[in-house]
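Quick start: what a row looks like.
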Amino acid sequence: MDLERNSVGIGQRPALILVDMIKGFTSSACPLGTDCPEVVAANAALLEGFRARNLPIFFTTVVYRNPDQASVFRNRIQALNCLTPDSQWVQVDSALTPREGEALIEKCWASSFFGTDLAVRLQSSGADSLVVTGLTTSGCVRATVVDGLQHNYPVVV
């Protein structure tokens, strides 16, 4: 059955969430990454548009500070163990470096909401909708979009 859907679009004050646009995923030098300059460039253009309009911007990174964090997932994909606080791989790609006032949220799981204070930060910023971009679409972006909807935000990918 194909149900009728209405487009909800975005609000007057959308927040941009750049999911895991980190060196570990944007560089083939990391076992988790691939060189993807076109993806980085598209995210940079979107980021500049949000900056020009003084809209809320949130970056996420994946950081494992102890062996108990996301242990099942890390056991399954052992390459994730390189995402430690002292690793260059957890840093945002240099073409997208956060500016002062742009939050960098550390996460251990797929969703940018799960186990973080993103929901509180979004509410404090006055965001009324979300634009979600980043890496990877089938995992962390998707999980963030689903949780954004569950927090009652219109979401555009």
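That is the whole record. The two ends are 24 Å apart (CA to CA). The chain has a mean pLDDT of 96.
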